[in-house]
Amino acid sequence: MSSSKQLIINCGASRITAAVVSSSGGVLQIEKLVTEILNYDYLNDDAWLGAVGVALHTLHHQHKFSGNASFVIPGNQVLTKTIRIPHVEESKRAQIIAFEAQQNIPYPLHEVVWDSQVVGDDGVETEVLFIACKSNTIEDFCGEVARAGFSVDTVNAATVLDYNAIQYAYPTLDEDVLLINIGARSTNLLFKNPDGFFVRNIQLGGNSLTQNIADSIGKPFAKADELKHKFFSDDLDYSDDDSGAKLLTSCSESFMRRMGQEITRSIVNYRRQKGGAAPKRILLNGRGALLDGLTEQLSTSQKVDVDFFDPLQNVTLCGELDSDSISLRLEISEIIGAAAQHMVADSAGVNLLPDEVQREMEFGSKKPYLIIAGICLALSPWPVFVGHKQLGSAYEKAAQATQVQVAPLQSRLSQILDNTNEAVKISESIRRVEGLVNSKTNWIQFFAELQASLTKAEDVWLDSLEVQREHASEGEASYEVVIEGQMLVRETADDTSGIDQEVISRRIKSLQSSFEDSKFIVSSKPPNINWSDLRNGLNVLTFTINLVVDTAKPL
Which of 173, 220, 306, 420 is deepest in the core (most CB within 10 A)? Predict the structure, then answer.
C-alpha cells in the first residue's frame, strides 16, 4: 500500500505548530508534533515575522525539523473577498478575477500575491473566493523560512483549510454548519452547506479580550495577557465578590457579546449572499473557544446546538501525543485541512508562493551541491598535472579527454545563449500584453463619460454598444464604437404632424456632440434616426450613432 509523508507548519499569530503527517490508504497519521510560542509584542504587527523566524530556527535546530514544508499563514495576514464574475472558460477566469478584484481591494493588485478558489457556479455566474497577501510580507516570510533552514513547498491560507478538515473529520455531515475558529488576532467563520462553503474573517480574537483587560486595569498588554491566562485557568485565588474577578468577568462578557454580534451579522450577510438557510449547528475551534461561558452564550443567542470541533476523528496519533487533549484538538485543524487537501472531494486551498520566489529558493537549496561541484571541477586538472610531470604521454591523453568533454559543453553554451535571446523576446511580448491589459482603465473612463452624457440629455438610453475594428491598407487600425439607443418623445405620437422632428433631431445631435467630447473620440458619423417608430404610433425614437475612436487612445 503506497504512503506519503509531508511536513506542515502552521504559523499562527501567537504560536507555530509543526507536524509530520503521513497518509496511507486514505488514513492520516501524525508522527511528530511540536508547538512553539511566539514571543513578541502582539500590538506590533511588524514584529510577527521576526518572531516566526526565531520559532522556525528552534524547530530546525532543537526539534530537528528540516527540508521542504507546506506553510500556513493566519487569517489576519491575508485579505479574503468573495466576488462574483461572469461564467467564462477556465483559461480566461484569472484575467476576469484580477479585474474584478482590483475594484474590491484597497491597494494595487501588483502589490499583492493572490490566488482564488471557486466556491459556486450556476452556469451564469461563478462565485470565487479571492485570497491575497502583500508581496513584501510573503517575500519576507520566505526569507525567514530560508534562514531557518527550510524550503517552502506551498504557502496556504488558514482561512479555507477548515473546510477540508471538517469534510475529512465528518464525511457524512450534510447539514448547514458554522465552524468558528477563534485565534489570537482574528476569528475565521466557515459556513458549510451541501453545495459548498462561504468564508468570512473578522478581526476579533483572543488578543481583543487581552486589550480590553489592559485598558480596564491600566496595565501593559503583556501583563494583562498573563493575568487573563491565569484567571481563566483558575490559577488565581479570587473570591466571587472580588473586584478584580468582577472586572475580568465583565471584560469576558463584553468580548462574548461582541463575538455574538459579529457572528449574527455574518450569518445575515451569508444568508443574503448565498440565499441559504441559517446554520443548524455551530462547531467551535481555536484556543479562544476555551473561554468560559462562550459555548452557552452562543447557544442562547443563536438558538442552535454548539459543540467543540474534533478534527482528529479518522486521524491516528503517535504514542507520544495525548489524543484526549482538548487543547491539541483546538489548534490542529488547519494542519489536518492541509494534509487532507488531496483526500477530500471539492477540497479548498490556495498557494500564495510567488513563482520567482519558488525558483530562487530551489536554486538556493542547490547551492551547496553547485559549490562542491565547482570545487571538484577546479581540482580535476591536478591529477592531470601530476600525470604530466610523471609521464608526458599520459598528460596528452588526459588533455584530449578534456577536449572531448568540453565540446558538448560549448554546444550547450550556444544553446543557452539562444534560449536567453528567446527569453528576452518573450519577455518583451509579455510586457506589450501587460500594456494592453492595463488599458482596461480606458473603458472604465469611457463608460463613465457615456453615462454622464445620457444623464445630461435625459429621456434617453442605450440598447447596445459594439466595437468595430478595421485595418487600413497602410496597416494602422481604425476603431469605431457603434451605439444604438432610444429617446423618449413625451408628446403624443398618434399624429405625426404634432411632432417637431427638427427639435428632436437637435436633441439627438446634441447627445452626439456630447459623446464626441470624450477624449477617446475624434469624430462621429451622422446619426441614423428611425422616424418610422413615431409614424407607427410609438412614443420612442430609435437611433444609431457611429463614434470614431482616437487610435492614440484605443479601447
Answer: 306
Average pLDDT over residues 373-391: 63
Instruction: Kindly provide the residue ranges of all beta strands, DSSP E only, lying in 167-249, ordered along the sequence.
Output: 177-182, 187-193, 196-202
Banded model confidence at residue 553, pLDDT cuts 50, 70, 90 = confident
Q: Which grid coordinates belong to 165?
A: 478538515
Does residue 404 carry a pLDDT above 80? Answer: no
Q: Which three cell numbers stand for residue 47?
A: 514584529
Q: Which three cell numbers stand for residue 215?
A: 485598558
Do the beta carbons of residue 547 and residue 524 sit within 8 Å?
yes
Q: Which long-range contacts (CB under 8 A, 24 or more apart) does 227-235 make?
A: 232/290, 232/291, 232/292
User: What is the architecture, at CATH level 2, of domain 1-77+132-169+314-379?
Assistant: 2-Layer Sandwich (3.30)
| Domains 1-77+132-169+314-379 and 441-549 belong to one CATH topology | no
The number of beta carbons lying within 10 Å of the beta carbon of residue 201 is 23
Closest CA to 36 of 71, 10, 8: 10
> Distances in Å between the alpha carbon of 229 and those of 235, 267, 290, 514?
8, 30, 11, 68
Residues 6+ apart with CB under 8 A from 462: 450, 454, 483, 484, 485
**CA 423 to CA 416: how far, in whole Å?**
10
Residue bearing the bigger pLDDT, 401 or 335: 335
Nearest to 196 by CA among 114, 116, 127: 127
Tens digits of residue pLDDT in 243-273: 778 888 899 999 999 999 999 999 999 998 8
Domain boundaries, the chain: 1-77+132-169+314-379, 383-438, 441-549
Number of other CB atoms surrounding residue 161 within 10 Å: 29
Is beta strand 460-471 parallel, antiparallel or unpaired with respect to 477-488? Answer: antiparallel
Measured CA to CA, the distance from residue 311 to residue 28 in angstroms comes to 11
CATH superfamily, with its number, for domain 441-549: Ribosomal protein S6/Translation elongation factor EF1B (3.30.70.60)
Please compute Rg for the chain using Cα positions. Answer: 33
Q: What is the band of 368 on the pLDDT scale with cuts at 50, 70, 90?
A: low
Q: How far apart are CA 187 and CA 28, in angstroms?
A: 26
Cross-strand pairs, 155 = 71
- Distance (Å, whole) CA 28 – CA 325: 18
What is the C-alpha to C-alpha distance for residues 485 and 212, in angstroms, rounded to an integer?
Answer: 59
Give the pTM. Answer: 0.65
